[in-house]
Amino acid sequence: MGFDKEASSSSLVLKVPPFPREDTPLLAKPRKLSSQSKTFANVFIAIVGSGVLGLPYTFKKTGWVFGSLMLFSVALLTYHCMMLLVQTRRKLESTLGFSKINSFGDLGFTVCGPLGRFSVDVMIVLAQAGFCVSYLIFIATTLAFLFNYEYSSWDFGLSPKSLFLWACFPFQLGLNSIPTLTHLAPLSIFADVVDLGAMGVVMVEDVMIFLQNRPALEAFGGLSVFLYGVGVAVYAFEGVGMVLPLESEAKDKDKFGKVLGLCMTFISLLYGGFGVLGYFAFGDETKDIITTNFGQGLISILVQLGLCVNLFFTMPLMMNPVYEVVERRFCDSRFCLWLRWVMVLVVSLVALLVPNFADFLSLVGSSVCVVLGFVLPALFHLLVFKVEMGWKGIVLDGCVLVLGVVIAVTGTWSSLMEILAPKA
């Protein structure tokens, strides 16, 4: 039963969700507690996504040294904010006696009531849908690049990218009609294995091409592209919504922070290596999707097709939190086929309108991902801990909060200008 509880010496009213599973559970059902190795693997799967493919192009714009420093700084700040969420949930559950907080949205409701839940819901819908838009852009652009020579004569009034995107559309309608994640889990595992293999092959190819060509490189691209690079970097670490569910199913919760830190370090090194090697291989010729820089060789084609398969089967999983939010708000949490199809159509139409993959990564990262990853965790932590924190803690949370708002506003504007600017 729900009840209100007033935080000590504070006017903040913390509310317990009346239903323990009302919000957006990114992990569908409770599972057996995970070992440290399984927790590491789950965190890796939750974070690594399509954002890595835009890092070489980002490093071309920011410079490889500046880009690397920015990437590791964003990783450190992301880890800090993830731990703020964990600490806030533990405080509310253990010390203040609130009922089980299962997700980011539950936490928002507990701290800020319906407004907190609504804010998290909106950000999760925009972020997850944005990820799926980037998936479709990558799939359509890559297939158009691979088969352009065969299909360039096919007109129908559509570009090759549009043709491939609409060719995927009916299959995505079918995959997104599956009501449960259980049947999609094997596809997700397969997709992640393909993704890691493809990234490894790409990095090896990058090294070989660099040793042959040795293009001119820039270490620092200037402050004018700082916000652009931050947006892509924030997007690349896209798993903040999964942190609370993953911590809940960890067997040794006291070591969750250590496991999360190790995983974030490993992912940061992987991202940094992928971005730097991609830029080193092609220099100023680096394209927004790094795989389109490779020729038509068999290995290159297989890698690009593998990445397309990975994102094609990952899209229904990434859309699931969107469905959980919209079906809860408009259909009383009942499965609604037509609503899911409408969402797939909307995502496909947005993908048609966005010309550049990396530019879109920057837009989503600078806007909703910054709010989800930095602003809301710092705000929730500040509201719950402000009575017992010293001035240093309050200043730290305040700085993260202000920094997140500044990056969100200025980065979104910068990314929109980049997308709308005429291309040479």
Automatic annotation (TrEMBL):
The chain crosses the membrane at residues 39-59, 65-86, 124-147, 163-181, 193-213, 225-247, 259-282, 294-314, 335-354, 360-382, 394-416. One of its GO terms (cellular component) is vacuolar membrane. Residues 35-415 form the Amino acid transporter transmembrane domain. It is a multi-pass membrane protein. InterPro entries: AA_transpt_TM. One of its GO terms (molecular function) is neutral L-amino acid transmembrane transporter activity. Its main location: membrane. The keyword Transmembrane applies. It is found in: Membrane. Keywords: Amino-acid transport, Membrane, Transmembrane, Transmembrane helix, Transport. This is Amino acid transporter transmembrane domain-containing protein. The lineage of its organism: Eukaryota, Viridiplantae, Streptophyta, Embryophyta, Tracheophyta. The gene is LOC115950672.
